Fold these 2 entries.
Entry 1:
Amino acid sequence: MVTYKKSHIGYIWHICIVTTFLLIAFMPWQSWITSKIDLANFLTPPTWKHPLGTDNLGRDFLVRIQETINTAIVPIWLITIFSSLLGILISIYIIVLKQGNKVLTLPIQLFNFINIFIASIPIGIITFFWASIHEKAGLTPVLIALAFLFTIRGYLSTLNLYNHDCKLGFWQANSLLGGTVHHRIWNYGILGHWREHLVKILSFNLKIAITIEASLSYLGFGIQEPNPSFGNMLASHFDLYLKGYYHTLIVLLAALLITCLFPSSFTFLVKNLLNQNFKKRAGQDKIRRLIQISARNI
Amino acid sequence: MGQKQWLLVKSKKSHLSKTMIKYLQTTILIIGWCFVLSLFWAYLHYFIKTKTFNPKRAREITLKRNSSLVIPSLILAPLFIALFYGLFRINLLFPIHFFSTFSSIILYGFMPAFIALLASGLLVSIATKIGREYCYWQSRPFTLVAKAYGKKSHKFLRKLIIIKTLAESWAQCLPWLFGELIVIECLFNAPGLGLDAWHLAKTRNISGLLEITIWLAAIYGMLIVICSTINKWIGRRLDGYL
């Protein structure tokens, strides 16, 4: 009874997160709500005209959050997915290159060391360097820094998975029987149990990408005003929290939290949906096999 | 170079080195508080686990689950600052060193460290690992033999589980801790290496930024070496345990 209730509460939570995010991101709020600068109505609490209230310049929060998601979050997620996949492909290429080629062992180890060193540098520092050298902040340096970071993360994660699994019995048996590295990585790895790990890593990367962008925008090195970003909205209202304007803080933090939780909730729901379909089919196959066995026994 | 110019350069260098020492001290203070809090949290969770342990449910706990919740510091820090100021009139922002006592500076390092632990997922990681390790080591033959000899298993296993958990959790969460440290220092206005890097980036001082990067990489490298050494030592010791 307890596990039944717990699992259903979990499902309801994830469905709420996904539904709220999709409603905020894809409903045509701009056709119903005006979001121009209106200093007569700045910092208003939530009303029917402005469902989440207005900011310090009278702009509607709901429309600003939707613009943030569409102009900043979606490109960041696309870059994250692309760079993670690129990292995985580079890792597979280097694993295949390394097979039976002892000359490349040292350069590959040096390459891995450089990657680990770059991955250890906080991404804020990389973006600070970029902004200092180019005298420009915005979405571009953030996207470039995130692309580097997630390519390296994808590369190192796949390498870790391979280094762990290559010692498994059935991997080594396949190798002795003449199987290629491609075959093992594709069939045992990517179509096997690596899939769950890689999807988890990807959803984590998507969450981290939003927090990194928001943090950099808060520090003034990401997206600049008037372009909307969670970070620059939080920064411009920081002094207001201490004066008691809590609704701005609650709205922005809630929107940021829902956006951060969306990738993991979405992957959870998709995974469970696919698993249920698989279990149904597997269950039907099991019943068919049992009927066949019992028919043979008769 | 004339004598006056040389004196100016010398005074600038000594000012820079004093400022750098102050920034280094604040960053090390926050990391020190992170370690103390993580140790306290590990002991607390171990105590709770020993009191609530159910041997019948021990087998249900899977060893594969290794998730840690990460809540960004950009969400936590403004929330805590606003709540503490609104409810208790406590200002969590770091005080100015010139007007503060040594003990108050030490105390103000607590909240940034707490937020850093929450934001990097270290607290959740420690809590889940302690539960998992306690259930795992309870069923080991050497623990059963120790129980048969009348020893209390929770005292027997305490050191092993806490050291192993802390070493694994710190190694896992250290990159996020460092990433969040820069943002947290800026949010709390704590004069550490992260805040200095921010100011240097705004004034386009690339050489200063490079110096900060080297200091951060050195601290990070030192912590990674400590974590991996402890993990290796524990691994060698545990190889002989049944």
Entry 2:
Amino acid sequence: MDSANPAYNEAMEVLRHGSLFVLLIVSACSAEEPSKGNPADSDTGQPASTAVPDECDDFPNTTVCVDGVAVECDGDGNVLTRSDCAESATVCVDNSGCEECGVSLVVHHTTDDGASAFVAVRPELTDDNRAWETFHSRPVTIQSLNPAITDGALEWSLLGDGFTLIDDAEGMAPASATVTAHVHAHQRGTALLSARHSACPELASAVGFHSEKQPPFAGRTRPSSPWIERAETFNQDDDIHTVLHSGRHADRVGLRYDVYVVNSKSASEWVDDPDLADVTASGRNQARLATGGAKENRTLASDGPLTVGPTQTAGFDVVYDFDLNGRLDPGDLMRGGDDPGFTVMGDLHEAGPHETDEFQHSGGTWYTQKVYYPADIEDMDPTPLVVISHGNGHNYLWYDYLGRHLASYGYVVMSHTNLTGPGIETASTTTLVNTDFFLAQVDVLADGVLAGRVDSQRIAWIGHSRGGEGVVRAYDRMVDEYYANDHYSADDIVLISSIAPTVFYTVEYSDPHDVPYHLFAGAADGDVHGSPASTGVQYFRLTSAAEAATQTTYLQGVGHNEFNCCGFDDATGPAQLGRDDTQDIAKAYYLALVRAYASGHAPSLDYFRRSADGFRPQGLTSNAVIANEYRPDPTGSWAIDSFQDGPDPSVASSGAAVSIDVDAAVEDWLADGNGNLADRDSDPMNGMTQACCAGDDNRGMVFEWYDEAASIAWDLPVESRDVSSFSWLSVRVAQSTRHAITDELDGPLDFSISLIDEMGERATVGFGPQGRITQPYQRSGNGSGTGWSNEFSTVRVRLSDFFDTNGIIDATQIATVQFDFGAEYGSPMGRIGIDDVLLEY
Amino acid sequence: MILWALIAGVFASPGGVHSIAEIHRFSLSEPMRFHWAEGAPTMDKGTILVVEVDADMAKPSQAVGSTLFVGATPAAVTHPGYRDGFMVVFVPGHPNIDTTPVFWAQADRLPERTSLQQGTKLSEDAPRIAHRPERTLGPVLLQDERMLYGRIAKLITQYAPADADFAHGYRLAADQ
């Protein structure tokens, strides 16, 4: 084997091509070799002419390498020792001997137990986001194990689908170099970074990585597993905690880190300025990642409320600083930058930061409008338009509370005279033409104060009562009947909200289609009462027909005219909230709704996606019982069971086999069977008002359990068992009104949800602490008994909660989704209807 | 005593209409659509009535409830009226109020979907009350729908001041 020493090689060539002595010398190479040759001439002291040449002849007092053997030479050029470096997994280095060889791979901020290093799943790497994504990658230092080996090169490579190595050295560097590369992941999986030294290519090193979604760092504590309700939106009066789960980050257990909560910055701002400035009342927290999962690793983020400012909202980023240097560096963990790590909301029902102005104008009897706008609108970017279409016997001047409120947060609001008396067609016409008329005039109204300030491509329609159906009908006419306006189109409608709408038309004609749709309704409504006694008041038919994201805010104790200033008192039922409290609720929820859909403020959607029993705008009356129902856009979810595919409850719409271990299970149209709320065995869908008439096709399931454990389980099709790309499991649930079991429970209801993987590992989460299913509003009438129409709430559980509860469960092999009922899992008894069991992204 | 008062109340205002305070007949220079009947027919003349009504029947309902008819035609309701007990309404044409019933009926459909035949059928059973309006005017010539509602606004202000918001809007349009 050639040495790296050219002189030595030349010498060896001479010897090889020389005499037999060369062969004898090479073949006799061994660990110990007696000193060479012939004794010196005793008279002259000179070596006798018969001395045996060897490797040390020209290399006295050094060590030479010969075919991987380290030959130590003494000062006389004699061989002292020979060591076969291969026997000790070393390599021979000239002038040194057998040396350790290889590449050191040190993943930053790991403990030494060899656990695979976590990398958060991020967007795919591009040239534009490289600098930012480097912060979210895992740095690895690559260098030679032995600086004594200065020759040769280091080589490394990363193997793993969905992983990329951010590496300026491009996989190779001189042996003397120290390189830091960054492991980045854009999909879930595992990867192996391996490296080798050219001096010992057989002695490769490797470190492992695994990637998965990193759930939010912030949450509210829970009294039981998973010990924290992670969230992205909080109220200012929430006790916000930060958390790091030792199961997900096993590679960091034992390490110290500083917890920073900082004002939210954009990705580019972080790249420009990665310094950390904690904004909490108590300053940054210090922690050490302990075993014990989330329970042992929760930290109160702030002793006092975080500042939200006059807009009543503020974003914050969370950084876990593992190198304790007060800077965001690769290897730290963070949530934020792309979107805030979390958002805090204040009192949304309070007036916003803008002073407001208003004026009225008219272009005809049914073109009379009142306009509310921020007084400093000339300093603002073009702002969305909110249009209010009142109901029958109502007036365009009756919505000052809402117009002024939204204007104080920067929106332009226009309330118009609405011709609702004749019916829905004329109501829809007035909505259509008034929106068009306003946009035609906007540049000249009020001396041009609004000129160029209204964004006609972001229009929200709010309709009340017949106006509530009118706005839906108006949209339907644009979509299905190609009704054309001069100054806007259907694409410009970003949101439709109906307050206690009538449903005179079938949903073929009053159809929200694919626009985000919201329903506001009061269970004490004495006019559009929502009971099955009349088809024209079953407003849940509209939410059932909607194709895009749909949300319902259902208020117990609220009548029809609490939503305006001046309609007569129609409220019927107990625990009435009254106009002031109702309008505070309306202001808060409408601000959140318009912000979400007209301004793209995603955190505001949490007030609709999360149970109002557990999370609602702060500062509202504690007497309010609110049922939130949310159904995502179908493109953002996959239905385990929508119940739309037929009456056989043992087969889900997805093809999943359904195991039913509950009582009295019936799958059918969600329609009350007899128009009466009295409970009857012959009417299992009693109280359901999601369907009644031609074009309605919403189906679901009802069942019950009583004082014993029960369950219903969906065995997922094999091709659907990898749920790792989803973020949520959700289902819509309502208690069955006036049923004996519901009456006996006499309160809110909850149960647990389990995921079971193919190996039988199970994770169970009870959703009760996040918000329970409301008891039906205790209103009498429309038959014997007490309880109004069934009110659905959406139960929505973060999938990471399951994996935090049981870290062994395999998200790529979830075989079964199971609902567990009984005292061990929640309410000891219940009679419920369910719909839309979904996995959401 | 209470029972008699109840019975007397029912028969005192059969059809929920106590009296007709004023009648204004008008014609229009610019015809308008009458949206309160099926087909939204065009009208170039009409009759305004100021009607004293049963307050509970006058309360506006979103669902299909009571509809005020003048003969076979649903009346165009311009304001709620229940607070003051008076409503200002109008219908196309110049019906003879002496012989035309004015009544509330529980309709099974919205006015915009009420045909002449359906209205006729409802009116056949309606009580024929000989109303003696305190004041009858016209016909007066009005320019258009705006001016019609402007006139109506004055009557609302006079007979139903609690509905000032409605009068305000009509006046704003008329004054443009």
